[in-house]
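Quiz preparation item.
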């Protein structure tokens, strides 16, 4: 392709007929390792002006290419499928790929100080060129592809000139570079090399003449002045300064933030990411690796740490940008491209205004170079795609609160909170290992109250560092106050609340409301139907719930025994949700929301309990509302459902008792009795009934007291210990007569409240 599009077999050169067919062949060669869809081929070949016969033309061209490849002895090289087309050839079989590889090896040699070997490799790579690239191919993509290839060649020529000048071969450079300067008179870097070579060979007048030609052309066609580098070179020549030791050159960009000195844990994630960016990276395609996780979980810290570890494998530089994806206005990728191009040595005046042209120049600059690009805090696929290099020699590390699954070929890892030991170790590294060792139990309590979230643990450690006289026990007491915990997890510019607020502010209105409402529940996790129960009027509660997952404000804890996907809040996120609810929602809404959710659990539990065998006494219900919940399916076994919801149901009962929702509490506890009996969970049965009985007693709910006492008599009767026989018998007798008195007092009204 570095000339006419030609198939070379041994000493024979073969051309595929028709320029458009050669264009399609070139398109596939430029996308080695990637399958191009039919729609992608049509877009590349015709842009937005595809004829009605485009599909048939592509099919015919593919048939011609396959037939000729078969004639050349390579019938299986072209792979076509419904998903698209791909040429199954190795990079070393394509001159453009061999050129890029030669340039990369030359730069590696130069980085090791072996300039002579670098010159040999560059001359070998440039020797692959036979003329204007893709000169006999047509297609909408060809002009841009040709420009990128030419840019790569010119960059290689400039690198070669630098090396030859360094080796003292200025005369060779002056002779070889002159025709290229004539062909590309506006290319400043090329002219700098020419002027330097002329100056070093004593041709000062010619060097200054080259500068004046460039200055006049720039003024006439662009209305600009020459750049700082070439202007300084001209002044140096005018002063007849000593010949510079070497040509001014742009150093490799090193934009990574500093690695954090007290980086802790994450051994598995560090190892996996480092492998994917080094020996585990693909050979023929760009390596894109992503880290997803909630705010404050340490994505940036991990990415920067791994980038520093892998930096030696990318000698041509490391680029970094915080894309501000969680802020109200994320960075425009066009602005990031301009910054990256300046870091790569492009004069600010030479950066195109058009964002597409910027992306093309960026990919061209990175072609055949080994550069690591870190895109931190990305908002979307649309923001990331223009910032991806085109060269397989580069790699990209992305962080985002959501998995950007639309980024083609990306490998993602999900980052969770620390394990307990890792969190304590971080606390010790920030606050002092001695202080943590002196109060190990309090250290465990602090990291638990921080929810093992790295940002929160770091803030806690920083607060201890700022107060060397504090005991860890003092801070743990402060953090136990849930109402002020987020206030106390802030120091300097580190604040857990601010990190969570970025994710929250990025939500739409209905999603914000769902977040606040779900945060009202104490349950350790919850099923998807709860979203619909607390947003009765929303037709897309499930979609809104998934948007909370995408924003990393709600996590997915897995699939339960009943086949439900279960969701969960991090403890600090739940506290933030309640903060926002207290600020933004009317006080009356709290019990309404909780009543709707609790009622949903009750409605399902009542249906399920009816299918569980158990005691012969009648089930007696209270008056708590039971909203309609379109779940579960008929094939869900009731015991599987109770197993899946056990922790949530017990939490609902406890929260209902705390809020004096005694009707709902005794109703739900009654639904659990047969389940507890069959599973032998007598401790849960007894503790639940006692808790609800006390709540009903406080509220004067005689029916609730009676139903709970009836269950207690049942569970205690069959599970009393023999050594307490006499006392137990007396107590059972008293409880039984008390129960009789209750039901007698309640009278016939109980019959109207029994469940079928």
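Solution:
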């Amino acid at each position: 392709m570095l000339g006419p599009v030609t198939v070379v077999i041994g000493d024979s050169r073969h051309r595929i007929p028709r320029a458009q067919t050669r264009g399609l062949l070139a398109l596939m060669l430029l996308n080695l390792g990637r399958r191009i869809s039919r729609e992608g081929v049509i877009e590349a070949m015709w842009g937005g002006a595809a004829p009605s016969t485009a599909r048939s033309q592509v099919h015919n061209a593919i048939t011609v290419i396959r037939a000729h490849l078969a004639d050349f002895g390579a019938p299986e090289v072209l792979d076509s499928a419904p998903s698209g087309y791909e040429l199954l050839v190795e990079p070393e079989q394509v001159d453009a790929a061999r050129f890029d590889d030669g340039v990369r090896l030359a730069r590696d040699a130069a980085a090791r100080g072996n300039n002579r070997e670098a010159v040999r490799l560059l001359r070998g790579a440039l020797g692959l060129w036979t003329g204007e690239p893709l000169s006999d191919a047509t297609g909408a993509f060809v002009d841009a592809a040709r420009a990128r290839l030419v840019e790569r060649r010119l960059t290689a020529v400039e690198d070669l000139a630098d090396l030859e000048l360094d080796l003292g071969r200025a005369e060779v450079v002056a002779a070889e570079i002159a025709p290229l300067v004539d062909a590309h008179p506006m290319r400043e870097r090329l002219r700098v090399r020419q002027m330097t070579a002329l100056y070093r060979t004593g041709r000062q007048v010619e060097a200054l003449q080259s500068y004046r030609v460039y200055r006049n052309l720039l003024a006439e066609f662009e209305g600009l002045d020459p750049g700082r580098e070439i202007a300084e070179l001209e002044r140096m020549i005018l002063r007849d300064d000593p010949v510079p030791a070497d040509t001014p050159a742009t150093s490799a960009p090193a934009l990574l933030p500093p690695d954090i000195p007290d980086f802790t844990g994450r051994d598995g994630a560090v190892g996996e990411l480092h492998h994917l960016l080094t020996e585990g990276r693909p050979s023929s395609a760009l390596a894109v690796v992503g880290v997803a996780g909630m705010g404050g979980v340490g994505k940036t810290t991990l990415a920067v740490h791994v980038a520093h570890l892998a930096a030696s494998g990318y000698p041509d530089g490391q680029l970094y940008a915080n894309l501000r994806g969680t802020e109200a206005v994320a960075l425009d990728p066009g602005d990031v491209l301009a910054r990256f191009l300046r870091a790569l040595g492009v004069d600010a005046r030479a950066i195109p205004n058009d964002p597409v042209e910027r992306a093309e120049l960026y990919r061209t600059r990175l072609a055949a170079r080994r550069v690591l690009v870190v895109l931190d805090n990305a908002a979307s696929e649309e923001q990331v795609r223009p910032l991806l290099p085109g060269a397989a020699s580069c790699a990209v590390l992305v962080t985002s609160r959501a998995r950007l699954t639309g980024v083609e070929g990306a490998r993602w890892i999900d980052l969770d909170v620390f394990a307990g030991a890792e969190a304590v170790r971080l606390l010790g590294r920030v606050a002092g290992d001695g202080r943590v060792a002196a109060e190990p139990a309090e250290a465990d309590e602090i990291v638990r109250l921080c929810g093992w979230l790295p940002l929160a643990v770091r803030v806690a450690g920083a607060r201890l560092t700022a107060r060397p006289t504090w005991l860890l026990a003092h801070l743990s007491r402060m953090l136990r106050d849930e109402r002020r915990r987020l206030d106390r997890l802030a120091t300097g510019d580190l604040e857990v609340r601010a990190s969570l607020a970025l994710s929250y502010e990025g939500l739409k209105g209905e999603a914000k409301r769902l977040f606040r409402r779900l945060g009202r529940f104490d349950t350790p996790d919850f099923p998807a139907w709860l979203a619909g129960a607390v947003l009765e009027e929303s037709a897309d509660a499930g979609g809104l719930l998934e948007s909370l997952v995408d924003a990393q404000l709600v996590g997915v804890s897995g699939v339960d025994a009943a086949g439900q996907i279960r969701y969960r809040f991090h403890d600090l996120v739940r506290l933030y949700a309640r903060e926002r609810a207290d600020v933004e929602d009317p006080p009356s809404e709290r019990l309404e929301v909780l009543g709707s959710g609790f009622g949903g659990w009750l409605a399902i539990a009542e249906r399920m309990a009816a299918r569980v065998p158990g005691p012969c006494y009648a089930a007696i219900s209270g008056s708590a509302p039971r909203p309609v919940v379109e779940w579960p399916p008929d094939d869900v076994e009731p015991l599987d459902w109770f197993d899946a919801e056990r922790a949530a149901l017990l939490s609902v009962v406890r929260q209902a008792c705390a809020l004096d929702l005694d009707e709902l509490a005794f109703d739900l506890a009654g639904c659990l009795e047969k389940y507890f009996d069959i599973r032998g969970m007598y401790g849960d049965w007894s503790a639940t009934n006692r808790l609800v009985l006390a709540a009903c007693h406080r509220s004067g709910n005689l029916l609730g007291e009676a139903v709970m006492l009836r269950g207690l008599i049942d569970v205690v009767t069959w599970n009393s210990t023999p050594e307490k026989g006499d006392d137990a018998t007396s107590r059972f007798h008293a409880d039984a007569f008390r129960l009789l008195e209750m039901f007698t007092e309640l009278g016939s009204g109980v019959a109207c409240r029994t469940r079928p």
